Amino acid sequence: MLCSLSERIMSTRPIFVATHPRSCSTAFERVFMTRKKDVNTVHEPFGDAFYWGPERWSERFMNDNSAREQSGYSKSTYKDVFDYIMSHDKDVSITSSRRNRSLLPCILRNLVTDKRSRRMDVQDGVTRMDPGKRLFLKDMAYHLLPPDQKQAHIAPSMKHAANGAEVDNPTMLPKETLKKFHFTFLIRHPRRSVPSYYRCTIPPLDKVTGFYHFMPNESGYDELRRLFDYLRENKIVGPAKAGEGKPTEEGEVTVTVVDADDLLDNPAGVIEAFCNEVGLSFTPEMLSWENESEEAKGQFEKWSGFHNDALGSSSLKPRTKAQQTPTPEAENEEWQAKYGEEAAKVIRDTVDANVADYEYLKKFALKVPPL
């Protein structure tokens, strides 16, 4: 028998959806962008520090000073990003454009609370955060962990919040910082996500995304699994699993994993189940967002080209046809026809390298019957 929300102690912490690229995560995020009255959304903020800032780990722009300066994020540290996220408890206006995001640390250090304005809005590229709302954050797990299983260390800007070296922590954020979030997880089979990501790193899309070559270590499954395991082992999530309806103790949150294929098969069922786990109410109106385009454009601007499908959509509806699972031979043939023989091999190797991590996380996925 499932527990009602009133029988469970629900978290009010900021919701953090940890995921990997091309997992339908932006469509998932758009659902919650419809909740303007009670939810603030923040879109992939830790990529600022991971790719562009002085504490960067990614090799993609490591030696490209010009690209980093042009991004507007070259001075963004992990602390700057964290402060930006947590500023939802103050009334703060922050420009979303690249040329102004480099001013973010100065803005945050000089926050002034203005109780007269308590709504979130996007006007002239300015996002206003309402302090009375729940925060919904979506980001790539690999933005928090060093690539290629390199030894992690707490980001220098965050060491003030760390408990010593934290040698078992695989992320750049202190354990106490991670505890401030209500973590959930979104996954998709690599046979779907990896080819989709590859397409974003080759012509013609690469000129829009600014990602001019494919990097297998950006697939993100290894980092997502290691983050997931660390959070479970330290009881930052769990031990109860989503959907079991078991009572939770104060401070506990369920292990909540959503599979994108389940989401696409039954959007209403999956979103309602997710909302039940994170302490939000569900309404069918969340699945349509005709009037959300300006806010979405402002939030998605910095990752241009990666979110065209989500920006061009107006709702999340069930698939009309059941998803077929092709054979590896059929997949190879399709990828070779689209991208060439050499690229098809790279995609195949990358998919195969990530299946085990996906299948491990899939075991924890919410069980929602298809329509």
From TrEMBL:
Region of interest called Disordered, as start-end residue ranges on this chain: 310-337
Enumerate the InterPro entries for this protein. P-loop_NTPase, Pyrrolopyrazine_biosynth_F
- Comp. bias (Polar residues): 311-327
Task: Tell me the first and last residues of the signal peptide.
Answer: none
Which Pfam families does the UniProt entry name for this protein? Sulfotransfer_5
Protein name per UniProt: P-loop containing nucleoside triphosphate hydrolase protein
